Every structure is written in structure tokens, then in C-alpha cells.
Amino acid sequence: MKLLMMAACAGLTLNTAAAQEMSYGHAEYLNSCAVCHGVDGTGDGPLRDLLIRRPADLTQLSERNGGTFPYSRVFATIDGRYAVPSHGNREMPVWGRLFLEDDAKNYGPSGGEVVTTERIHNLAGYIETLQH
Fold it and tell me: Cα 34 to chain center, whole Å?
């Protein structure tokens, strides 16, 4: 029994250590994006078949942009609050609005905007690490 408890604690330590090494952007991605874009960002999340358009393969953004990661465009796409209506509807949630609802409750309107912006920066930075 003591050996079993030690093994369980060792596993917990490993999981805790792995969680501590995960960036905020990675955690936010897994929480908010992976269900559609997949854990590895290739667009194969479990909800992909329920969507009208297949989610983007986020690992190819730099390649499709001449070898440069389109950070500002990725940030704006995630945020979504400043979309141009004439560009059509989007299936992707407007994360800027959704994040701000909770962040403003926790940090007030101004603080909420700062936290929301940082969350989106963390996501865009993490997506940049997914590039092939």
C-alpha cells in the first residue's frame, strides 16, 4: 500500500511539474481552441465535423504568409471584436468579447481589457510556436 501511495504521489508530482512548465498561451489554447483546431493545431479537433467550415490548420500560417508569422492578423482574428461585417460571418467565437465578460467581472472594465488583451497575446504567441 505504501509503495502504491508513493507511486501515485510521484505521478502527481510529474503532472504538477508538467503543468507548471505549460505556458499561459498553451493552457489557454487547450482550454479555448483545441476543441476545434485540435491539440496540435492542425484543424482536427473533436468538433471539426460539426462546423460548416473546417477549422484552419494553424501550423501552416507562416508558410501561407511567405514564411512570416502573421501575428497581428492572428491576434485580430482571435479577438474578433473589430471584424469588418462585409467580410462575412465567422463561425469562430469572438474571444475578445467572451474573455472580456469574465475578465471585467474579476478586474473591472479597464483591468478586464488589459487581461483580455494579454490572454489574446498569449494565445497568438503560442500559435506562433506551432508553425512548421
Answer: 7
